[in-house]
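quick q for whoever's on today - can somebody do inverse folding on this one?? i tried earlier but teh output was garbage lol. tokens:
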């Protein structure tokens, strides 16, 4: 009797999954974006909005440049494309720190540029002496042979590409960047940050690779973020090794529960961090404004 019942349950489960098809995950992901926001007492603003002109292109200062960068990946077996921001007066006689800045689920290596113009934000901050001179690498974080944001971008196969990017980043992109540009090659001079899926990637990769990165930023992190207990089994190691833990999210963002879970774990274990909850949704306003703040801390404050 029990055996019959369990067979029936397996049958039910199968038909259920089968009827929903593989887009089940995609539909759930879309629903997550619209989840109700429940705010706690810690979920408040740390920074005011940036000044109005923070991403206004100025003609009276030296400007950096964005160039295309190609590398061969053993993960995808293809040539992959990234964009690279070189700061004003990039000079081979100097050695620069590098920020790897990752995009969201619908993006590619152009997304940050389209959304927030990180080159303009950084040019302005560097001119004012408020940010370190740095190189910013804008990769394509979907490590698949076809890495374009086309078709069902929420499908499990496409989402898997964001996990596969870990190996692509560490084994292929970083070595290729460090072979071409005049950069520092130690953990103290490598930062990882990203928006949404890229925020989840940054948390997942950085916290488990503190030998590679020591500065971390996650803006509006998506549900690809692994549980905090899994990423930080030993809080003392993170306290000792991470130089910046920057978390942000808009208070109108249905994904805020992901960042809240991480932040509550950090608070519980006394892990120093910045938690900036602004009044935005899952949008470019919060990403630009938090990049503006993050850029003024990375590679300079602990
Ligand atoms: C999800 C909802 C949103 C999800 C990912 C996202 C992996 C990503 C959003 C973005 O990158 O903007 O459930 O699951």
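ok took a stab at it. sequence:
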């Amino acid at each position: 009797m029990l055996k019959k019942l369990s067979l029936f349950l397996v049958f039910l489960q199968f038909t259920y999954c089968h009827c929903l098809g593989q887009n089940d995950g995609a539909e759930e992901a879309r629903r997550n974006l619209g989840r109700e926001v429940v705010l706690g007492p810690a979920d408040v603003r740390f920074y005011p909005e940036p000044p109005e002109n923070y991403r206004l292109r100025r003609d009276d200062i030296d400007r950096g440049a964005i160039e295309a960068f190609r590398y061969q990946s053993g993960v995808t077996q293809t040539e992959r494309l990234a964009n690279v921001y070189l700061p004003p007066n990039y000079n081979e006689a100097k050695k620069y720190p590098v920020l790897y800045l990752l995009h969201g689920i619908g993006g590619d290596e152009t997304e940050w540029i389209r959304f927030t113009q990180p080159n303009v934000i950084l040019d302005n901050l560097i001119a004012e002496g408020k940010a370190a001179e740095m190189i910013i690498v804008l990769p394509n974080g979907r490590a698949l042979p076809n890495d374009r944001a086309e078709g069902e971008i929420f499908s499990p196969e496409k989402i898997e590409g964001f996990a596969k990017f870990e190996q692509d980043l560490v084994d292929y992109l970083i070595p290729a960047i460090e072979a071409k540009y005049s950069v520092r090659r130690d953990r103290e001079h490598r930062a990882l940050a990203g928006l949404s899926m890229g925020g989840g990637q940054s948390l997942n990769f950085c916290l488990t690779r503190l030998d590679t990165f020591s500065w971390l930023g996650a803006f509006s992190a998506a549900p690809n973020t692994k549980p905090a207990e899994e990423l930080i089994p030993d809080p003392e190691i993170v306290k000792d090794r991470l130089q910046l833990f920057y978390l942000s999210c808009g208070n109108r963002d249905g994904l805020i529960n992901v960042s809240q879970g991480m932040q509550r774990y950090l608070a519980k274990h006394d892990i120093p961090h910045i938690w900036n909850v602004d009044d935005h949704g899952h949008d470019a306003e919060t990403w630009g404004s938090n990049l503006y703040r993050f850029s003024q801390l990375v590679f300079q404050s602990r």
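fwiw The chain has one domain: 2-295. also DSSP finds ten helices and eight strands in the chain. so keep that in mind when u check it
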